[in-house]
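Q: What would this complex look like in 3D?
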Amino acid sequence: MKKATHQATKEHNTTLVLKTIYHNDQISRADIARMTSLTRTTVSEIVTELMGLGLVRETGFGPATIGKPPIHVDFDAGARQLICVDLGEEEFHGALVNLRGDVLQRHSLPLGDRKGEAALQLAHRLVEGLWAQVTAPILGIGIGTPGPVDPDKGIIRQAVNRDWTNLDLKEIFGARFNVPIHIANDSHVAALAECAYGGHGRTPSLVLIKVGEGIGSGIVLGGNLHTGEGFSAGEVGHLCVERGGLPCTCGNHGCLETVASTPSLLRLVRAEAERAPDSPFGRALAARGASLELLREFNESGDPQARALVHDLGTHLGVVAASLAGVLNIHKIVLSGMPTLFGEPLLEAMRTEIRARVLPEMARETQVCFSAIGSEIVIQGACALVLRKELNLP
Amino acid sequence: MKKATHQATKEHNTTLVLKTIYHNDQISRADIARMTSLTRTTVSEIVTELMGLGLVRETGFGPATIGKPPIHVDFDAGARQLICVDLGEEEFHGALVNLRGDVLQRHSLPLGDRKGEAALQLAHRLVEGLWAQVTAPILGIGIGTPGPVDPDKGIIRQAVNRDWTNLDLKEIFGARFNVPIHIANDSHVAALAECAYGGHGRTPSLVLIKVGEGIGSGIVLGGNLHTGEGFSAGEVGHLCVERGGLPCTCGNHGCLETVASTPSLLRLVRAEAERAPDSPFGRALAARGASLELLREFNESGDPQARALVHDLGTHLGVVAASLAGVLNIHKIVLSGMPTLFGEPLLEAMRTEIRARVLPEMARETQVCFSAIGSEIVIQGACALVLRKELNLP
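A: Here is my prediction, written as structure tokens for the whole assembly.
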């Protein structure tokens, strides 16, 4: 606990005014004063300061009620740009975005079989490519990466698939790019994206489960990310869902990833088609090869084999969702990535499993749904991370 | 987000000074100024104010280094008293304590088969009994109770075993006792006790699992209790540990409480003795009846039947501890109540299960241990709750 100072008070009130302008298009100084309970004088001082930084601009006159019409101010989304990077997939993906997270430029580089230093170089090249496109002052670089990350130090503790251990990415990138750099686990930043852009209000509590090559989740409690003491909170991909199940890369058996990651699901799809090669599903698979798209189509048309696979996937995700709901008593569990292909049949299987595994009252209050943010959720989250750290937004 | 005010700054700094005195016996105003970075003048003003409230007193002179010797001040633990109540067990238990949580008086009333209004009357009588013993101004009444509790409103949402639904205990007790009243779930306040008096530092993260008639846990993140959106965070007694297991009072099957609460354990002890009536364990049970004490003795002497029962108990607790560790990535899991009777064999079984169920790195960093606070942990927690709410201590 530190002493409260005049400086801290001022920073707090500046953030308050900036947030108010950010969340309200076309607002007058008088409205800001009313909404924040700050004095007109304080608001005017802060607005002047924010205009000096270019974050806020005057946009014209509002309608006059009495006396002269009020001048409206607005948040200038184009005043800064952010470089946002997702190092969590098979293709490194980055974007240049404005202060509202609108994508201005995209850039991708396939990872191939690069690991260690080579993978790091690729990430470097990706940022270089975006850096060359910048047309406004840079607010910062935001990076979502696999593995536990110390977000204050910007060190990646361990990203097994990248062969990175205690990689001080903040220092390495900081030496080349002289702007603020913020790094966090990819599932954690995805949760920040859901929190900022998912329409859950200003200080939501939610869990975002991200499923792809791996599985992870990010936990947001009252608008704040819970990272955990080892920066591994929400590491649900390696929670056991089948004691004595298949071996996992982590050394344990029956982890969620062994049955519910994208590669595991494709393996199960192939096994199911081999089991019944003459079924419509089996024949389609022989003709077209195993793919998520194939499973999506057959699930949608109600094919029993596809439905059974989706049901099992939902059940396994449900085991872990039940742990999340039961431990945290958070009412919103949001799915992102591969499971969003499988609609209500998947959600229903998850809900059934949650009902069987937590207190009925808690299960009733738990909503399970799909994220609306789409495949760039980590990019959006990296943007939210930088906005949060640099401007206390949103 | 609210505006920061001069008043908020002052309150913050007053708390800071009070905390500093609370944690440091015999301290001078100059030392406080040094430790808090506040000015000597501000510290002197605040100390004078705290002395006016009776919370701080001058205790004499310290050694002079140069000039006149400094006057020492101290926290006066006897300046207020607190009434603390545990409504979570078969016997309602209360205590009168000072500002350090030292017990001055105890009072207990057996619940018998009372439910609803009769149980409420008993709680009332318990507080009345302690109220009559008070010898200093009352800081407040703290209550730990079963079931989810809205701690701000002081309403017990539902305590099934007490037959209480939406019971506004704060209002009911407030009408009779004109002092601040704070109410929370019994496992949640137990976690506050562990946090305040368990020697884990000032802002620890930990989970306290409390096992007795029922099973619950309290989650402390960075010194703050995480209550959950429905006030049911840490409701681990009803997490499923055996899909399709025994029916539970909650309507589900295979909840942790069906295999690891005290009544469930005693049932399993009896079943084991019936299975092998001629073993030393079976004969002792026939002679002395099933009891925790019997199991404790036989576990300690290494009896294989007792050890197997303890191993299963540890395994079941370990399933839930793994969910807690995997979801929260909190490094300290502390057990209170019945499991503390069974020592290392129990902890080892839990650790084994955690290792099998979470990421090896996370399992390595997770400590599982017993609370040192003992059977009055809810009383101590009710004290910590009132201190926290009324004085921002400890």
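A: To summarize the key features: The first strand of chain B starts at residue 27 and ends at 28. Chain B has three domains: 6-75, 81-196+377-391, 201-370.
Q: Very helpful, thank you.
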